[in-house]
Amino acid sequence: MASQPNETTSGPVAIETVDEFETALATDDRVLAYFYADWCGPCTIAAPIVETVAATVETPILTVDVEALPTVAVDHSVRSIPTFVVYEDGMAAERMSGVHEAAALRAALEN
Q1: Nearest-CA neighbor of 65 among 42, 85, 38?
Q2: In DSSP terms, which residues pair with 83 in a beta bridge?
Q3: Which residue in 56, 57, 50, 44 sits closest to 14, CA to CA?
Q4: Nearest-CA neighbor of 76 among 68, 89, 16, 86?
């Protein structure tokens, strides 16, 4: 992992293992998880939006490739991609599917 999830980053944190994901949820009070796949057309549209938001907020944004980590997707009820889930204290607080503008993602983090 490039940086620790609880550090302020200039971009999203790519999650590579189940343990990294669970550690991020346990470590940070609030995180935004972006579930995607490389082959997903809407995900390619959402990716630069995620990058922009990650560069402008202190909340860690975790990127989870559902092809590489299918158990994480299943365990967190991800049924379509892209899906965004805001976690507060390790629990899902808000879920959004599809492509969303940066303002909508920031608003979800502020609620």
Answers
A1: 38
A2: 35, 97
A3: 50
A4: 86
Q: Which residues contact 2 (CB under 8 A, 6 or more apart)?
A: 13, 14
Indicate the length of the chain as a whole number. Answer: 111
Q: What average pLDDT values come out for the chain (111 residues) when binned by 10 residues? A: 46 95 94 97 96 94 97 96 96 96 94 79
pLDDT digits (tens, 9 = 90+) for 51-71: 999 999 999 999 999 999 999
Alpha-carbon span 18 to 40, nearest angstrom: 21
Residue 10 pLDDT: 72
Q: List, by residue number, the catalytic residues.
A: 40, 43
Question: Which residues on neighbouring strands pair with residue 88, listed in sequence order?
Answer: 30, 91
Integer-rounded Cα Rg, in Å, for the chain is 12
Domains of the chain: 13-110 (3.40.30.10)
Asked if 43 and 50 count as a contact pair (C-beta separation under 8 A), the reply is no
What tokens does 59 get?
A: 């909340």
